[in-house]
Amino acid sequence: MKNVTDPFLFLGFWPSAGSFGLNTDILATNPINLSVVLGVLIFFGKGVLSDLLDNRKQRILKTIRNSEELRGGALEQLEKARDRLRKIEMEADQFRVNGYSEIEREKLNLINSTYKTLEQLENYKNETFHFEQQRAINQVRQRVFQQALQGALGTLNSCLNNELHLRTINTNIGMFGTMKEITG
């Protein structure tokens, strides 16, 4: 039985195996490297690539089937929508005919209610004006009365001196006494 490491040890006896170097001849190395890489890719990648393409093909077919189903559903919905549109247009025509007369009635009702509201506002304005006018007149009367009263008191106080004041009091007391004797 052979040892598993024998082939690797055999490499050590090769004369060129002891040294490494770069082969700078591009024309000699690139075609060899490319052919090796392409061969490996074709050998190992052929199954993977065909699986990927099959999967992609199945997804595309499935998408096409779904699209066709959706298209069929959309066409049905479109027909239903067109039928509903026709019905709605007929109803709209009826509403339009009936609606014009209803709009006119509502317009007249709105105009009448607006006129009534304006009348009420005018009445409120007039009442407020009369109330404010009476209040202003009463305030003016009160001020005139206060000023007249203050003027009369000022005149009386300036005209009356003590002697005149005592004479007026005595005269009034005498008049009260005479009235008491007459009534008494």
UniProtKB/TrEMBL annotation:
Keywords associated with the record: ATP synthesis, CF(0), Chloroplast, Coiled coil, Hydrogen ion transport, Ion transport, Membrane, Plastid, Thylakoid, Transmembrane, Transmembrane helix, Transport
InterPro entries hit by this protein: ATP_synth_b/b'su_bac/chlpt (IPR002146)
Main subcellular location of this protein, as a coarse class: membrane
Classification via Pfam families: ATP-synt_B
Residue stretches spanning the membrane: 31-49
One GO CC annotation: proton-transporting ATP synthase complex
An MF annotation (GO) of this entry: proton-transporting ATP synthase activity, rotational mechanism
Protein's cellular compartments: Membrane; Plastid, Chloroplast thylakoid membrane
Similarity field: Belongs to the ATPase B chain family.
Complexes and interactors: F-type ATPases have 2 components, F(1) - the catalytic core - and F(0) - the membrane proton channel. F(1) has five subunits: alpha(3), beta(3), gamma(1), delta(1), epsilon(1). F(0) has four main subunits: a(1), b(1), b'(1) and c(10-14). The alpha and beta chains form an alternating ring which encloses part of the gamma chain. F(1) is attached to F(0) by a central stalk formed by the gamma and epsilon chains, while a peripheral stalk is formed by the delta, b and b' chains.
Role this protein plays: F(1)F(0) ATP synthase produces ATP from ADP in the presence of a proton or sodium gradient. F-type ATPases consist of two structural domains, F(1) containing the extramembraneous catalytic core and F(0) containing the membrane proton channel, linked together by a central stalk and a peripheral stalk. During catalysis, ATP synthesis in the catalytic domain of F(1) is coupled via a rotary mechanism of the central stalk subunits to proton translocation.
Name of protein: ATP synthase subunit b, chloroplastic
